[in-house]
Amino acid sequence: MKKLTLEQKLYLNGFRPDAESHLKIRDPAKCRDCELKQCTTICPVNTYRWENDQITIFFEGCVECGACRIACAECGNLEWQYPRGGFGVNYRNG
Amino acid sequence: MADRGEKFDVIVVGAGPAGLSAAYVLAQSGVNVAVIERGDFPGSKNVMGGVIYTQPTAEIFPEFWKEAPLERHLVETQAWVLTERAAFKAAHRHEAFDQEPYNAFTVFRSRFDKWMAAKVREAGALIIPETVVESAIMEDGKVVGVRTGRPDGDLYADVVIAADGVNSLLAQNVGLREEVPPDEVALAVKEVIALPRETINDRFQLTGDQGATIELYCDASWGMVGTAWIYTNRDSLSIGVGAMISQLVERGVQPNDLLEHLKSHPMVAPLLEGGETREYLAHLIPEGGLRAMPKLSTDGMLVVGDAAMFINSMHREGSNLALASGKLAAQAILRARKQNDFSARSLSHYDRLIRDSYIYKDLYKYRNMARFFETHPEFFGLYPDLLNEAAREMLTVDGVPKRRKQRSIFWSALKKRSPWRMAIDFFKAWRSIA
Q1: Helix, strand, coil % (nearest 5) of chain B?
Q2: Most B CBs within 10 Å: which of A22, A65, A79, A90, as the mutation test of the B interface?
Q3: A and B: number of Cβ contacts within 8 A
Q4: Mind listing the pLDDT tens digit for each residue in A3-23?
Q5: Cis omega before residue A44 (within 30°)?
């Protein structure tokens, strides 16, 4: 079957993105010292990207799974919340 | 106390199988229940592999198969041990599985949970969608309600049920649960791939609404502790793979790449050929088992379903444990209501009900399994290789006598691992699941 890129797959999902991110980095400087930068690999939708020496959060495609929350729990630099009620991913199948 | 928010008998946080099951049982007994759901509607945020079992579901919703939105009833279960180029397959099919009430069905959570929620509403519960619970409201160390993200959004209840899923921020907020470590939770990603019904029936040897499932191991999760699956829906396949977060992080594997690796496997790709991806989903699966089970009750609160880590990964069971735990929570609350006592001591009756149920007994049975396989990677690499190579050798007709083939299989296996080590591995593996 035709291989889709991750970006193409995300177009298939239903989203209602909020204006502001529900995910926040507490201290961006701290991420510079993070060797693994696991948030950039563990997220199934590539929410976190290392750009210009800092983490940029593309929260609009977040599917609210919580993988980053678990993977980054140890250093406590990620403020993880659910999107506000009515916002975020809307699965048609699930 | 005049401007306190509205008071219910029970507030259920999360409209998944666990929360809806609890709410249904309570509402049927005339209890004033509110179910708070953060999605647009119950089911819109919910994800699972896709199989529900009839008996545990019918315990809550009798004869649900006559009206609920279901995909296919399962007549066949397959297990494949994959290596890079091969598959060792086992399958079981039984005519009994083809008869009502059927043993299991594939479903889409967003449709099935919506249906369950409608039943719960009919029974008299109030379902409040598009609402996030931010924290529990505590008074004198007791849970007395929840603070929602809505303006003036404080709601009160005698008991709050934390049915908010694997991430359960609520149970954590109240201190019933610690942060889950990355080696006790798996991340699963899944795609729904549309295919014509006849194509699915041909490829899986099915007729009508018959369905089949395949569980795939070893190379399916790139040698990490995990499993993959392919389930047949009416007009689509659900294909997914899950692996421990600790191992995904360690190897720097992007979950979507893991799924693409599975989809392109030479044994898997032909099943998907011509299909079109319709949705891409991700969800966490609590794999810590008994070790990760939180405190289940406290003053004014109970924890159910994924929030309580009720998952039997060996048997791909989760939604049934969720439904069952929801019902037991409801029973404990009905008992507490009779005594008008919602203290930790009174609600700990729920702990006892869980302990006496198959939920606890199965968690106990497999309590060492996850850790065993995490520390024995040979079960995901070396042993599947040996198995598939042995099968290939014995099935290759090339003029070499079979006895010599057996000997060469035996010696090449011994070169890779001593018989003593192998015996210990398999004994321990058996012990971890026996």
Answers
A1: 40, 25, 30
A2: A65
A3: 142
A4: 999 999 999 999 999 999 999
A5: no
What is the per-residue pLDDT across B304-327, written as a single tens digit (0 to 9) for each? 999 999 999 888 899 999 999 999
> How does pLDDT run across B247-279, given as a tens digit for each residue?
999 999 999 999 999 999 999 999 999 999 999
Question: Domain of A46?
Answer: 21-84
Reported ipTM: 0.97
Do B59 and B208 fall into the same domain?
A: no
Strands (E) located in B270-395: 276-286, 297-298, 301-303
- Phi, psi angles (nearest 5°) of residue B46: -95, 140
Count the domains in chain B: 3
Task: Determine whether A58 is exposed, middle or buried from the number of CB atoms within 10 Å of its CB (0-12, 13-18, 19+).
Answer: middle
Element spanning B170, H or E: helix B169-174
Of the candidates B48, B167, B278, the beta carbon closest to that of A12 is on B278
Instruction: Quote the domain boundaries for residue B243.
Output: 183-286
Burial readout B14-39 (b: 16 or more C-beta within 10 A, e: otherwise): bbbbbbbbbbbbbbbeebbbbbbbbb
Which residues of A are less than 8 Å from B275 in CB distance? 1
**At residue B3, does pLDDT exceed 70?**
no
Whether B245 sits inside 8 A of A85 (CB atoms) is: no
Structural domain count, chain A: 1
State pTM to two decimals.
0.95
CB nearest to B248's CB, from A42, A85, A91: A42
Mean pLDDT of chain B: 95
